[in-house]
User: What shape does this take?
Amino acid sequence: MHVVFKSDVILIKALKDGNPKAYSSLVDTYHHKLCVYAHGLTNDHDLSEDIVQNVFVYVWKNRTKLKDDFSVKNYLYRSVYNEFIDQYRKRKSVLAIEKKYIDALSQIVEEEENSLEKLIALVKQEIENLPPKCKQTFLLSKQDGLTNIEIAEYLNVSIKSVEAHITKAFSILRKTVGNKMDGILFLLFGANRKNYSSN
Assistant: This one.
């Protein structure tokens, strides 16, 4: 049976006391939400499960160090994000340009625990809403990693036409999410893409 703790203060005290019901309540309440959030970061179901599991294990092992009065939800979301960054760094050496985006994304997470999730969903929706040819060109560039010349040959159009579509796509996306756009594209399309901006 799922035990509900009336406040974070009560829940934290129960965790610090080693109450297994408090841990179960924590997992029952946040596991699914955190997995959805982690999947938004990784696009990998197994990895997102591992990240969330690692966070819960860490919280339990370090429960005596928890502060008495803080937002459990914020703490968990931030911990998932930090674990994602740790996993990412372990898997590959981080380039200077990637570090720039990771730092920018960290700021978004600091502002609001679920704002990154909202921004990712927003950018995905905006990409879907792009005019058909604009969307196709943009995805060939960012998702498939093709150069402008390769796209021009593939679509049988001029390079100027390709550039115009990509510039238009960036303009539309930038109006929606502003200077956070490059970091979101980095998350969506990975670090092996040649360009994250239209410059």
